[in-house]
Structures are given as C-alpha cells and as structure tokens.
Amino acid sequence: MARAWAEFDQARETEIAPSAQLLADLRTPLPEHGDDVIKGLNDASAVLDASLAQARPRYFAYIGSSGLEVGALADLLAHSYDINLALDAGAASLLEAQAISWLGDFLGYPALTGSFTSGGTVSNLTALAAARERALPGSRAHGLSGVRCAVYCSQEAHYSIKRAAEILGIGREWVRTIPIDAERRMDTIALAECIDADIREGITPIAVIATAGTTLTGAVDPLDDLADVCERTGVWLHVDGAYGLPAAGAPATSDLFIGLARADSVTVDCHKWMFVPKACSAVLVRDPRTLSNVFAHDEAYVPHAGEALNAVDITLEYSRPMRALKLWLAFKVHGAAAFRAAIARNCEQARDLYERAGALDGVAVLTSGPQLSIVPIRRTVPGCPDENAHNAELCTRLQADGRVYVSPATIDGQVWLRPCFTNFRTTSEDVHLLLSLIDSEGADCSHHG
Ligand SMILES: Cc1ncc(COP(=O)(O)O)c(C=O)c1O
C-alpha cells in the first residue's frame, strides 16, 4: 500500500499492460488448497498495478477520485471490525450520525439526518422514493395504480434520475427534461411552465431534481430560483450534487449554490470530490420523517421504528458497511480547511486550462468558462473533414500513450475531450502536460482525409 501511495504522488509515464504471466494467472481455476499469504498479496498488487487507477494524478476521465490514504486505512479498520450499520451498533451509529452532520456543515446544508449509500445512483433513488411518498402518501403500499406523476430535471441531468423513475414506478417517460440556458443550467421559466401545465392536466409533480454540477460540463442549476418554483407549487426539491456539491464548501465557488439550504434532499458522492475511496455517497434530508415514511418497516425480527430511528428505517439496505468512517477520519486528520483548499485548487486548474486552451490556435473551448472543474476541449484542424472522428481518435491515442487519461463526451452533437479535475494530487504541471499533448498529438488529421 505504501508503495502504491508513493507512486500516486507523481504520475507514471505510461500505463502498465498486464504481462503474459499475469493474464495466465488470471485464468487459473479455483484453488482447492491455500498458499502463502505474502505471495497472494504480491499477486493481488501485481493485478492492481496493471489496472487503471483513478487515484493517479493524471487520470482526468469521467469523474475520477483520489483514494485518500487515510480513507483507505479507515476502510481496512472498518472491514476488520465488520460492523453492520443497520440497527443500533453502539458508538459506530453515533459516528455515522456525526459524519452526516459534519458533511452537512461542510456543504452548508442543514441536514437533520441522512445516510451513506453505495453511490449517487442509490442516493438519488433514495431521495426520490421519499419524494414520491410525500407527493402520493400511501403509494409505497398501494402502488401508483395508474396515477400519472412526473419528475423534472434539466436535459443534462445524470441518467440515474431516469433509472430511479423506472424503478419507482413513475416511468422513464414521465421524466420531464427541461431545456437549459446558455450556461447549460436548467431554465427556471420553462420548469415553472411545465409544472403548471402538468398540474392543470391532473399530473402529480413528484420532485424537481436540480443538478449541482452536471456530469457533462459541471453546470450548476440555479438552486434559489428553482427553490422558489418548488415553494410556490409545493414540489419536493432534490439537489443532485453527486459530483459538484463539495464546491459549495469552498468560498470561491459557494455562491453558485445559494438556495441549497432550501432543498428537501441532497446527494453528494464523497468518493468523488471529497477524495475518499469508493463507495461513499451520502443522501441528506432536512426532515428525517420523509425517509422513515417510505423506508421504515415493522418486522418480527427487526426492532421496529421507535423514537430513535435505525439506519434501516431510513435506507434501502440492511447489510450496511461502515462507509462513514473514511469521511469522518479524513475530516479529523486533515480538517475541513484542507478539503476546501483542494477543491478550490481543482477549480483553479480548470480555469487555468480553460484560459490557456482558449488562447491557442487550433484548440476550441466552450464559450462559457468552467463553473466547477470540468473543461471540455476540442482540437480543430483547418481542412479536417471529420473533426468528430479526429477528436474521438485523439482521445483513444492519448489513452494509449498513457501519460494522461481523458475520456470523450458529445456536446451538442460534437465530440469533445472532457477533462475533469477531482484529485488533490493533480499539479499544474500535470494540467499543462495535458494541454500540450492535446495540442501536439491532435495537430495532424491526415488520416481523416
Ligand atoms: C451528477 C451525477 N449524479 C449521479 C451520479 C451517479 O453516481 P454513482 O456513480 O456514484 O452512482 C453521477 C456519476 O457520475 C453524477 O455525475
């Protein structure tokens, strides 16, 4: 582990492909008898070393993570005790509640309760289940029985919202995708018109899902304006901040999140921009009863939902690992200020890249600058007959080169490279190398002639 961590401090020059021996080892049959533990651990490290690790400082693809060291140690400790945070587990339950409260304080969200989940997908599902039960009381028991209901999000919301609508019986086709403005944020007027029209038609609005940091470009929907619409119409406001919400805790970006405290629920993935290892998402709510109304059960073998709620009364899962420990320990060891500074640094890196890229000939950036830490970039080459193919191929070439790792994304029909900075290890030099590689490797498009 120490060797891996030391390696992450500086980017390696290429990705290591699995050796022939390793590939052969990964095809061996079930071992009937055990072998030496040190050999086993060495074999395991060899596999991990030949894998794509998001903790590396030049991993800029999708929305990466950092695998913060103290978080990894917390996981080792937590798994050693193997506590189940379903019913009251003693001090560990208190720690989980404290971690939720610290997280709410960090973000500026007055969370009265919440829980750690396996990811943003499950956190969003959890919040929308609570919203459904508030809008249609008793639907958890009777089903939707043909009631028409809808949820509202921007056209660039994460697809976990559609999945939640599918699973909750709302139906994917009832996800109203609201248009976006020039900065790719949900258009509040269009939202208000859509909700009003649905109410007139007898369709029950379940929730508005604001995205605080879209996966595509990092746009933050106008939370305060959306909260006004929700207040007027009595609709639940959920903020999906799986990626971007930690930036609410950094002074330079906190203004983007004005209105956050008015949301009924929020999602934040601590395994993204709070730097701890997967899986550590959190769903926070202002009113604890909204979760217990949809999740609490009386079963003969489970102490029923009394005054003090059990974790199982407010979540989907029964077997629950102690996900809270890694965030709790990280706050204790590093302090909130270190988190705020690291998030701000990632945003500065994004701004720096945007400005440097915008100043280069043959490199395009979006007309509006990064709100958070995602900077779509596109190589343009005069006379290039197929710039989409060129940029897709440039991305593949950079991945194969191994010095940087970026992923592509399609924005308004165009293929872009979409670097995203969420790693505290990333340096300015790493960012500058990315730009110089895009510039030099993308200069030639002769094979698209
Ligand atoms: C805005 C947003 N919401 C939800 C998710 C889903 O999170 P997870 O992958 O942890 O399930 C993501 C993942 O990237 C995201 O960007």
Secondary structure layout:
Blueprint: H1 2-8, H2 20-25, H3 37-49, H4 69-81, H5 91-107, E1 113-117, H6 120-135, H7 139-142, E2 149-154, H8 160-167, E3 175-178, H9 188-200, E4 204-211, H10 223-233, E5 236-240, E6 265-269, H11 270-273, E7 281-285, H12 288-295, H13 324-334, H14 336-358, E8 363-365, E9 377-379, H15 387-401, E10 408-411, E11 414-417, H16 428-441
Parallel strand pairs: 2-3, 2-4, 4-5, 5-6
Antiparallel strand pairs: 1-7, 6-7, 8-9, 10-11
Pyridoxal-5'-phosphate binds next to helix 6.
Q: Please, could you describe this protein's structure?
A:
- Its cofactor is pyridoxal 5'-phosphate.
- InterPro entries: Aromatic_deC (IPR010977), PyrdxlP-dep_de-COase (IPR002129), PyrdxlP-dep_Trfase (IPR015424), PyrdxlP-dep_Trfase_major (IPR015421), PyrdxlP-dep_Trfase_small (IPR015422).
- One of its GO terms (molecular function) is pyridoxal phosphate binding.
- Belongs to the group II decarboxylase family.
- The protein is an alpha/beta fold and 449 residues long.
- It folds into two domains: 1-68 and 335-449, Aspartate Aminotransferase, domain 1, CATH 3.90.1150.170; 83-334, Aspartate Aminotransferase, domain 2.
- Helix content is 41%, strand content 12%.
- The chain has helices at residues 2-8, 20-25, 37-49, 69-81, 91-107, 120-135, 139-142, 160-167, 188-200, 223-233, 270-273, 288-295, 324-334, 336-358, 387-401, 428-441, and strands at residues 113-117, 149-154, 175-178, 204-211, 236-240, 265-269, 281-285, 363-365, 377-379, 408-411, 414-417.
- Strands 1-7-6-5-4-2-3 form a seven-stranded mixed β-sheet, with helices on both faces.
- The longest helix is centred in the C-terminal third of the chain and has 23 residues, at 336-358.
- The protein is globular and about 60 Å long.
- The protein starts with a helix and ends in an 8-residue tail after the last helix.
- The structure holds pyridoxal-5'-phosphate.
- The site of pyridoxal-5'-phosphate (PLP) has 13 residues, from helix 6.
